[in-house]
């Protein structure tokens, strides 16, 4: 009796065995227990030692005479045939062994149940051997579809990226077919991608709730690989998102999974200024608050002069900041927010906070320099050019700390002239405070063209 005939015969036995599923969990010996114990010892020892060929006869005897003996029978049987298939060099013999391996998975389900677990294992094993087999591609896709249908979010991790690889294999296989013969449409690819993405997202959320950082990173890496494969099959650009995803999002604006796709695809195609991207990203951030998203959204709204939305997001980003660098960046943006509203003193305070949080980031000095440079008109008393030009010296000093050479040159070109200092009886090297102006800095007198 070959293995295929054995599966049919054993399935009939299982169908007529009361409570077969439950019985696979115990040890159910056949009438000839002594013989069965001998066969179990033989295949158990052979599999343990990697002598897979020596295990097959005993395994087949048990599958015929005691199919519901214990799940260990099927665990060892799959180990043996997987080992043989992996070692076999002859293509024809290898195919027979792979087919036998798949039949053992089917036999286990028929005899012992546990379909979700076993079918996940079968799918992973099938993909391992048949992912590049064009003839098996449609069958493999049906198998993975079934796995995702019955598994919910409990799909085995090794069947995540594998599913997208199977979809891609089918796509490649069908590329040479006439359009009328193709059975894998763009919509079907996207639907499967959506289902797969939802499972990965659920696994990420679960890993985050359990503080399993390594698992979160693993799932995010898998997601990136899945997305790369999708882009080999479907052109996902902003036009695609607007045409296919925006109507769905408008119909269900609380769909977080869809919002994540819109966020990702539009960002990749560099159309993050679109209101759709902002709306989707806000939902993603609201669901899973993230420093990076709060920062990007705050910066975008700041750019659009939507201060009402920018400020809460930037303040939230400040609470989410994990290190000095992050805090420095957000304080810079908070300073920009105040500057755009005309609150220069408040802006300077934030730029100084940025410098205090992250001294390595010199942007705060340059920003303060800009505040001083462009304060000439409001700070001018129009009584003496020398006095009015002190703001440029203050700006220069900030630019020097920032290492902004071009801006230093511009500020130096606006210093008081020698004549202008002489008119006030001021001398280079003296210090003067910028009075009656919000700048309030004390500077060392210098003239145009000199440091």
Biggest sheet architecture: 2 strands, antiparallel
- Strand residues, percent: under 5%
Assign the structural class, choosing from mainly alpha, mainly beta, alpha/beta, alpha+beta, or little secondary structure: mainly alpha
The total count of helices amounts to 24
Ends distance: 98 Å
Q: Kindly state the mean pLDDT as a whole number?
A: 90
What is this structure, in a nutshell?
The protein has 451 residues and is mostly helical. It has helices spanning 3-15, 20-23, 33-49, 52-65, 71-87, 91-112, 115-130, 137-151, 160-174, 186-209, 213-231, 238-251, 256-268, 275-287, 291-303, 307-320, 324-340, 344-357, 363-373, 376-379, 385-388, 390-402, 405-412, 418-423; strands spanning 431-433, 442-444.
Description of the structure:
A hairpin with an 8-residue loop joins strand 1 and strand 2 (442-444). Among the domains are: 1-113, no CATH class; 289-361, Serine Threonine Protein Phosphatase 5, Tetratricopeptide repeat (Alpha Horseshoe); 378-451, no CATH class. It is elongated and about 120 Å long. Mean pLDDT is 90; it is low at 7-20. A two-stranded antiparallel ribbon has the order 1-2. It is 71% helix and 1% strand. The chain has 24 helices and 2 strands.
Provide the descriptors you would attach to this structure in a database record.
elongated; 451 residues; Serine Threonine Protein Phosphatase 5, Tetratricopeptide repeat; mainly alpha
Q: How would you summarize the topology of this molecule?
A:
Layout: H1 3-15, H2 20-23, H3 33-49, H4 52-65, H5 71-87, H6 91-112, H7 115-130, H8 137-151, H9 160-174, H10 186-209, H11 213-231, H12 238-251, H13 256-268, H14 275-287, H15 291-303, H16 307-320, H17 324-340, H18 344-357, H19 363-373, H20 376-379, H21 385-388, H22 390-402, H23 405-412, H24 418-423, E1 431-433, E2 442-444
Antiparallel strand pairs: 1-2
Helix pairs in contact: 1-4, 1-6, 3-4, 3-5, 4-5, 5-6, 6-7, 7-8, 8-9, 9-10, 9-11, 10-11, 12-13, 13-14, 14-15, 15-16, 15-17, 16-17, 17-18, 18-19, 19-22, 22-23
